[in-house]
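Students often ask why we bother encoding 3D structure as a string. The short answer is that it lets us treat folding as translation between two languages. Here is a chain of 244 residues written in the first language.
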Amino acid sequence: MKAMIFAAGMGRRLGKITEAIPKALVDVNGKSLLHHAVERCSSFGFNDIIINVHHFADMVEKEVSRLNRMGFRIVISDERDMLLENGGGLYKARWFFDYNPFLLYNVDIVSDFDLSALWRHHIETKGLATLAVRHRPGKRFIMIDSDGRLRGWKNVETGEEKLAGVSNSDNLEIIAFSSMHIVEPEIFKNMNEGVYSMIDLYLELAASHQINTIKHDEGYWVDVGTPESLDRVRIMLSENRTNR
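And here it is in the second language, the structure alphabet:
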């Protein structure tokens, strides 16, 4: 099965750490974030992988070559000229995908979520896309209805809302997107070139297409976006290995 790992980000929130290396190559207990993401995806059968590159692209390509020598199957989507965000980045990489659903995964996500559960839920609910979601602290959330369908987005700090297919948010649940999603290739019919996020695209499509979610409040999920979260995930994974 095919997957795209978004690995082109600048990683500015990591401060000095990403002044000399890309976020994808940040070390977590002896392995790069990219290595962790590739292992995670491949362990659930998503072993035909494309990644996008931009920041320190040459360094990421060297890591991809090393991982391919280890037996992984990874190709590159080159965004050196312009960083396209994950929506535009996916559209540029559309040539890679076939007629089957595929996984999208952020390189800075470290989680024990069962990706096969995400896949099964997608196949069973027959939507255009299925998003893994989780209750966690934050400022920006998606909003879902009682059936788990995407119906909007909200910034709880400013009160800004974007609704999709509903007139108000009174009965909607706010929950955070976990940056792991299964998508039907049909989505490319609704995409164009440009710089935009997948969430913005999903919100545009949610009124007319079924965008589903699956909750995963158990286990761990970390966005390795700051030095503090990087330290936390290093300790957490080390402790998990010790307790096995």
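Translate back mentally: The helical segments are 33-43, 57-69, 85-92, 115-125, 198-205, 227-242. Keep this in mind for the problem set.
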